[in-house]
Specification:
Number of helices: 3
Keywords: Coiled coil
Order of helices and strands: HHH
Number of domains: 1
Strand content: under 5%
């Protein structure tokens, strides 16, 4: 009889151990899934934020390119008008520089250099 109760105790112990391991494994899996979900949410937020920043920067770049093109057209128009009036070269004064956007003054040097290289 003693052997039977020992065997029964062993089976009961194994069943209890299996149950505890199952509960612990499920709890660990639940915690891992929560950590992964939280990390994914943060990553998705960061990607979304960077996409919005990129779109804003693209719009700013397009606006700056438009301003540079408009200023270049104005400069070419003024230069062609000046040439038609006697061939004198157009020299911008300090007052003229203050009327043009900062972007044009910065980028006109790069644009002019690129145009000169393209004409050669």
């Amino acid at each position: 009889m003693r052997q039977r109760s020992t065997m029964s105790d062993c089976v009961t112990f194994h069943a209890q151990l299996a149950y505890i391991l199952d509960v612990l494994a499920n709890k660990a899996l639940e915690e891992i899934c929560k950590v992964v979900d939280d990390g994914y949410a943060v990553l998705r937020f960061e990607v979304s934020r960077h996409q919005k920043e990129n779109e804003a920067l693209k719009r700013k770049l397009q606006l700056m390119e438009l301003r540079v093109a408009q200023c270049s057209e104005r400069r070419e128009s003024l230069q062609s008008t000046d040439l038609a009036q006697g061939g004198h070269t157009f020299k911008r004064s300090t007052a003229d520089e203050n009327r043009f956007p900062v972007e044009e003054r910065i980028f006109s040097q790069h644009t002019d250099a690129g145009l000169r290289r393209g004409k050669k």
